[in-house]
């Protein structure tokens, strides 16, 4: 070791390098030490600048959601409303006054119906444009127990569609904004506010009973697909009555609004994604939704693409407030969320009170799906015999629900070839290999057919496709033009994306 040091120090270049390294370490240490000392000095200076709480200085009280109370000091009316609401919830409010305020509802729903409504416990998940109008309508109609769930705060842009928010509420949680404003209208209502994000992991706790009472109804007014699917799936699996609002964005025609089963909701991207995800989880129907059949058109509002400079910043998902939440401004006409929210509240009132109501009946297409499934079974057996296999007893790994999903959600009940909507069936797009039969189970033969391999055609088109491609020597490129081939590829890619939710 000593000989290495002597050789190193005897070299002029080595001496220079050693000197530079030592100097760098000393300078770096000095800089870091100076920065640390400067930070300590700044912290000490800041602490000294904070006055002691005493006769000359009083600490400002914070609001219930952590803001300085001096930012928007409550008015005398606000203070009186808070006091009145606190007393009313404890029973110190004349019931005759409540019945007088609800007189119009009372003569409409009768005493029995109004009593059911007043005793109901409703949960509203999502307190923006749709949820705020639904909540306000329910409280004004007599619902006395409301749990509000939303993670977000009121913004300036919220004021074009929010039912009760004012400028003074900007920056405050939406759940507390609604409670504070509605307490001035129906002070006897019990509000339970949860300033939280709804998710699959928290569903059981957030939808739990209130004081032993199971929710009479759940309202879904969420605009995030993951949270919406988690909520609807939980309600369906746990038999909680629920109604969901589909997208009000880019809609403007109130005459196109419908209430019906989710299996029939159309012409809405949010509804389509929700249906597909729920079908993958085994929920295909039984959930009422409010949706609009209005279609995009020339001159109508649309969701603009994200600017290229935003993509250049990296992962687009990181631009959102939370993962999976939209990062673009959704065009919304302020009246439409209100119409959706009031339609939701109207449905809850009618269902809760047992008031007679009828909506447009849903079309049952189960027989059609059974026919398509049987036709597909026959096609697979013919292919098996074509390659010399005994097709007797062969099964295909698809169900009636799978057929309905492909026909309705992927191909919109139209042939991929001609766009016709009659005499439909499903058929393989590409010729299978000779190993498309699974024989691993003794005494049983199963087709290895996958949903992403199927396309929708008319029966006549499928017969030609089977003869010339599946059994013949032609390829899809020989039989169809590029537009059809590209569209099929897009559909299969789309289905492959949704397959991960199964």
UniProtKB/TrEMBL annotation:
PANTHER family for the chain: TRNA THREONYLCARBAMOYLADENOSINE DEHYDRATASE, TRNA THREONYLCARBAMOYLADENOSINE DEHYDRATASE 1-RELATED
Ranges of residues in domain THIF-type NAD/FAD binding fold: 104-358
Record-annotated membrane-spanning stretches: 12-34, 119-139
A single GO molecular function term of this UniProt record: ubiquitin-like modifier activating enzyme activity
Organism: Lophiostoma macrostomum CBS 122681
Protein location: Mitochondrion outer membrane
Record-linked Gene3D superfamilies: NAD(P)-binding Rossmann-like Domain
Alphabetical GO biological process terms: cyclic threonylcarbamoyladenosine biosynthetic process
Known function: Catalyzes the ATP-dependent dehydration of threonylcarbamoyladenosine at position 37 (t(6)A37) to form cyclic t(6)A37 (ct(6)A37) in tRNAs that read codons beginning with adenine.
GO cellular component term of the entry, any: mitochondrial outer membrane
Domain of life according to the entry: Eukaryota
Its membrane topology: Multi-pass membrane protein
Family as reported in the entry's similarity comment: Belongs to the HesA/MoeB/ThiF family.
Keywords from the UniProt entry: ATP-binding, Ligase, Membrane, Mitochondrion, Mitochondrion outer membrane, Nucleotide-binding, Transmembrane, Transmembrane helix
Record's protein name: THIF-type NAD/FAD binding fold domain-containing protein
């Amino acid at each position: 070791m000593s000989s290495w040091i002597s050789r190193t120090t005897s070299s002029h270049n080595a001496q220079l390098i050693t000197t530079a390294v030592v100097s760098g370490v000393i300078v770096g240490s000095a800089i870091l030490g100076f920065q640390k000392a400067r930070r300590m000095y700044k912290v000490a200076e800041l602490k000294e600048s904070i006055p002691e709480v005493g006769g000359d200085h009083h600490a400002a009280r914070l609001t219930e959601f952590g803001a300085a109370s001096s930012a928007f000091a409550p008015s005398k009316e606000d203070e009186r409303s808070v006091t009145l609401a606190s007393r009313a919830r404890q029973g110190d409010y004349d019931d005759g006054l409540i019945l007088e305020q609800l007189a119009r509802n009372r003569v409409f729903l009768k005493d029995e119906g109004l009593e059911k409504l007043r005793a109901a416990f409703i949960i509203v998940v999502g307190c923006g444009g749709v949820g705020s109008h639904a909540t306000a309508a329910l409280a004004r109609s007599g619902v006395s127990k409301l749990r509000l769930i939303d993670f977000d705060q009121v913004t300036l842009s919220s004021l074009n569609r929010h039912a009760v928010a004012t400028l003074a509420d900007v920056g405050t949680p939406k759940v507390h904004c609604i409670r504070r404003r509605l307490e001035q209208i129906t002070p006897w209502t019990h509000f339970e506010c949860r300033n939280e994000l709804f998710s699959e992991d928290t569903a059981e706790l957030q939808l739990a009973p209130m004081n032993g009472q199971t929710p009479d109804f759940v309202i879904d007014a969420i605009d995030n697909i993951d949270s919406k699917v988690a909520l609807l799936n939980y309600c369906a699996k746990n038999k909680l009555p629920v109604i969901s609002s589909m997208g009000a964005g880019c809609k403007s025609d109130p005459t196109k609004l419908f209430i019906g089963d989710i299996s029939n909701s159309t012409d809405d991207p949010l509804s389509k994604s929700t249906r597909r995800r729920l079908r993958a989880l085994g929920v295909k129907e039984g959930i009422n939704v409010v949706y609009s059949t209005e279609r995009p058109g020339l001159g109508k509002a649309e969701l603009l693409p994200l600017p290229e400079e935003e993509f250049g910043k990296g992962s687009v998902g990181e631009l959102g407030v939370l993962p999976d939440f939209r990062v673009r401004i959704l065009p919304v006409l302020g009246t439409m969320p209100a119409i959706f929210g009031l339609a939701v509240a109207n449905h809850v009132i009618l269902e809760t009170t047992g008031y007679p109501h009828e909506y447009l009946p849903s079309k049952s297409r189960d027989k059609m799906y059974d026919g398509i499934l049987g036709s597909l079974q026959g096609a697979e057996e013919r292919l098996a015999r074509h390659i010399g296999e005994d097709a007797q007893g062969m099964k295909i790994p698809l169900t009636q629900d799978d057929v309905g999903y492909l026909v309705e959600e992927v191909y919109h009940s139209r042939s991929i070839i001609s766009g016709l909507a009659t005499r439909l069936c499903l058929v393989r797009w590409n010729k299978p290999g000779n190993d498309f039969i699974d024989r691993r189970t003794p005494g049983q033969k199963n087709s290895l057919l996958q949903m992403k391999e199927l396309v929708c055609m008319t029966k006549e088109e499928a017969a030609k496709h089977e003869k010339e491609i599946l059994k013949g020597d032609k390829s899809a490129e020989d039989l169809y033009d590029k537009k059809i081939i590209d569209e099929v590829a897009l559909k299969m890619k789309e289905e492959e994306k949704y397959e991960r939710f199964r």
